[in-house]
Amino acid sequence: MDQHFIIDFDSTFTQVEALDELARISLKNHPDREEIYKQIEALTNASMEGRLSFTESLQARVRLLCANRDHLKQLITHLKKKVSTSFSRNTIFFKNHQDQVLIVSGGFKEFIIPVVTEYYIKKENIYANTFEFDEEGNIIGYDRSNPLSQEGGKVKLLRELDLKGEIFGIGDGYSDFQLKESGLIEKFFAFTENIERKSVAEKADHITPSFDEFLYINKLPRAISYPKNRIKCLVVGNVNEEALAAMRKEGYNIRHRECIEEKYLDEAGVLFCDDANQPTPEQLEHAGKLKVIGCFGKINNRKIAETACSNGIIIFDDPKNNPRNVDFIPRRVIAFMNEGKTHMSCNFPDLQPPRSNNSHRLIHIHKNVPGILAKINDLFARNNMNIVGEFLVTNAQIGYVITDVNTGYDAEVLNKLKAIEHTIKFRLLY
């Protein structure tokens, strides 16, 4: 069955509302700019939450802009830097689905086209409003015959397009939900990476905190194998808020607890702790999902480090009062989770592989016994998998292998890699 992906622009493809940003550019020197900014933002939110018709909101916002073509040039430069993180890392999806992706927005083509076409989205698949200008290049209005300038415009447009097949809608606003309400799309995904509008999210078929999550649940190719919003980061003890902000920015699901309880540790992929709150070796033996520990302080028991290592759990620690650990710990944890880097770990062998583009990265952690690498490579050879790069480091307990392979392989190979004798942990990184 054919599939189509209807994607919103403002606060979805980009992190911001473009008209709000245009106002901040065009009204920069206006004496009443702060008051006008608030009016425009209020009009935007009222429309997105379904409290004001889109037509009324758009008319009022454009009147307040006082913008021209030069302001639009500045806006485009700004928006290119504000593409939502999870969209920007999945460029390959857009490249491979050029005929299926449609940008449908109540925004304006003048600033949308220059941004999204850099992501292989076809110009003819971009549906949005258009400004009207006077002879001096000032914005004086917009084409009111365009259905997207009207209330229920996205519904009107999709009826005209008459797309066949399975249609998914992704957006943050009420106008996006209306597509589901009209029966024109299969599922509506409320996109909450940038903003969560509760009145919209509660009506969605699925809440997707990132584009990775959307691709994951629909079994579509993606840049990372497992969405970070599904990975719980357990926080116990005195952990600086700046460090947690870095993890939130990456998309991790932060969970605070007073002490380390097994039922919460068993669910966690990441643990942040301090000197006074560290897991016991026994707890680590049963923490099947745990991949990495960031300790804001030094690990106070060598048995903890050894047990973690033998169970495939890497640890990064730093002296308690070292001012660098606010940045050092989350940076090292993120580098391991994103690229498999183990540099500066206190219990894993050191490896800093370069990132490989246009390939998949596989991580295999196993007991340090002879012959494992040969078994891994034999499996690749028998399944015609081309190795782009391979790295092996060991310590007394484990062997740590990172293999970058080309994009074509049978998913069953991953299960065979997990089943190799003496395997401790295996994961597809990206």
Automatic annotation (TrEMBL):
Cofactors that this protein relies on: Mg(2+)
E.C. no: 3.1.3.3
Gene Ontology BP term (one): L-serine biosynthetic process
Domain ACT: 361-430
Top-tier EC class: hydrolase
Pfam family, one: HAD
Domain of life: Bacteria
N-terminal signal peptide: none
A GO-annotated cellular component: cytoplasm
The entry's keywords: Amino-acid biosynthesis, Hydrolase, Magnesium, Metal-binding, Serine biosynthesis
UniProt xrefs under InterPro entries: ACT-like_dom_sf, ACT_dom, AHAS_small-like_ACT, HAD-like_SerB, HAD-like_sf, HAD_sf
Keyword Amino-acid biosynthesis: yes
Pathway: Amino-acid biosynthesis; L-serine biosynthesis; L-serine from 3-phospho-D-glycerate: step 3/3
Annotated catalysed reactions: O-phospho-D-serine + H2O = D-serine + phosphate; O-phospho-L-serine + H2O = L-serine + phosphate
Gene Ontology molecular function: L-phosphoserine phosphatase activity; magnesium ion binding
Protein name (database record): phosphoserine phosphatase
Record organism: Mucilaginibacter segetis
